[in-house]
Specification:
The protein is of the alpha+beta class. It has 3 helices and 10 strands, in the order αβββββαβββββα. It has one domain: Protein Transport Mog1p, Chain A (3-Layer(aba) Sandwich), CATH 3.40.1000. The longest helix has 24 residues. The two termini are 21 Å apart.
């Protein structure tokens, strides 16, 4: 295994939020891959919003972590990049969110509706940029709303988000946005250590 891949893998693992960070509301569920040094097949995409936002050059190692409780589901994807700047990828996510009002993520499933430019605090000190958006996810579950953010620092891009389920779309989106804001300092603290 190339030394550069090992370095990127170590950095991605180091940037993950601790497993107990969202307990008891959302206990840790799983990591992908399950073991820190394990290799899994991955695409070059860092965002599935309105078609992929893909890494343009170099290598990328991604680590995924999931937490799930009865009323709260949160996730984190850490992308350690060898060449691309995380802020450049974040800009492309921002452009897609602003240009795309809806899209079909899975063929034959209902479309997702995008709400761009979700209000967040400024990026924490030491980070290059922060961007958030929300979307409905009826293709996963009717009444599901996802809000997610991208946090950029050098060659590290962290995507984190939350899913909320309800029959009231305004309440659902508001709850998801609030949970996303509460996640930011926890995610930033972990990423700053990497």
């Amino acid at each position: 295994m190339p030394e550069k891949w090992n370095q990127l893998s170590d950095r991605a693992v180091a940037a993950l939020v601790p497993k107990d960070a969202f307990a008891p509301d959302a206990p840790w569920s799983k990591d992908i891959p399950a073991a820190p040094g394990e290799i899994v097949a991955q695409t070059s995409g860092v965002a599935g919003l309105c078609g992929d936002v893909e890494v343009k050059s170099g290598m990328r190692v991604t680590r995924h972590r999931f937490w799930s409780g009865p009323h709260k589901v949160v996730w984190e994807d850490v992308h350690a990049l060898s060449e691309d700047k995380a802020a450049d990828l974040l800009d492309r996510v921002r452009e897609k969110a602003r240009a795309c009002t809806s899209y079909v993520r899975k063929e034959g499933k209902p479309e997702r509706v995008v709400t761009p430019d979700v209000a967040m605090d400024p990026p924490p000190a030491g980070f290059d940029d922060l961007y958030a958006f929300c979307e409905t996810a009826p293709d996963v579950q009717e009444g599901q709303h996802n809000c997610q953010a991208y946090l950029a620092r050098g060659n590290l891009l962290v995507n984190f988000g939350t899913s909320v389920f309800s029959d009231d779309p305004v309440l659902t989106r508001g709850t998801a946005q609030q949970q996303l804001k509460e996640m930011l300092p926890i995610v930033a603290q972990a990423a700053a250590a990497a």
